[in-house]
Amino acid sequence: MSHEIIEKYSICNGNVINNDIEDINNNTSSEIVYEVIRVIDGVPLFLEEHMERLLKSSHMIDINLSCLVDKITSDIKKLIDINNKPNKNIKIQVYANKEGNINYSLFFIKSSYPDAELYKKGIAAILYKAMRKNPNAKVQNSLLREEINKELQKSNAYEALLVNEQDCITEGSKSNVFFVKNGMLYTSEKKDVLLGVTRSRIIELAKNLDINVVEKPIHKSFLNECDGLFITGTSPKVLPISRVDEILYDSPNNEVILRLMEAYDSLIENYITSHK
Predict the structure, then answer these.
(1) CB 52 within 8 A of CB 136
(2) What is the pLDDT of residues 213-253, one digit of tens each?
(3) Are 63 and 49 in contact (CB under 8 A)?
(4) Which residues contact 153 (CB under 8 A, 6 or more apart)?
(5) Between β-strands 102-109 and 89-96, what pairing exists: parallel, antiparallel or unpaired?
(6) CA nearest 268: which of 117, 116, 107, 44?
(7) Topology of domain 116-272, per CATH?
(8) Which of 115, 166, 244, 258 holds its CA 20 to 30 A away from the CA of 238?
(9) Is 125:157 a contact under the CB 8 Å cutoff?
(10) What's this model's pTM, rounded to 2 decimal places?
């Protein structure tokens, strides 16, 4: 069984797999697109947006997933129920085999969420020179993930901010990143990043809160100008950054960041209530 799979049951191509007995046949030869969805109180958060992105990512590597979207959506809800609704993350993997047939698997994965103290103190981040081949597609890259994890461990950091060939910060290695300066919100252009589900929600919330949002290339020198910054993602939600390499920030007390944290938490609560 894959080291990241937890809980008793998985689903592969519509079939229920007992993880204690069987193993998911992990593809090793083709590109794999994937999504990670957080489940709270039996509700898969923002399921519609995740499925839309999975469809787009698949299309970018020439997989037409449209005929399976409804089935996968139904299987996600089934997976939650047969595992007794754990409050953890579900991973969806999709790939085409050598014959061109589409395969998919769904399973709960080891899930780690920041504790309350990290939201109060902020996290440490590092700069890491890397650029994903197709930023808009959520494609698995185990080698890059392993390399970044080593650097994070060495630096005792939570996240790596990716820097491209133009020395611009594009996104986090497993998140999106936002910067605050003079009450305005800055983030990279859509073409340069994975269009995160949380990212889209934060931009929408910011506009509703009358916080101006600027999408443009963010040169790493901007780190010396901004008042604070934070990452967004399925597991961290809105998480302040208090240090990037040796530069320190008071992000956990930044008014713009605090407003967005509160608004996003309320959004999650409302979504869960309306989808139970």
Answers:
(1) no
(2) 999 999 999 999 999 999 999 999 999 999 999 999 999 99
(3) no
(4) none
(5) antiparallel
(6) 44
(7) D-amino Acid Aminotransferase; Chain A, domain 2 (3.20.10)
(8) 166
(9) yes
(10) 0.92
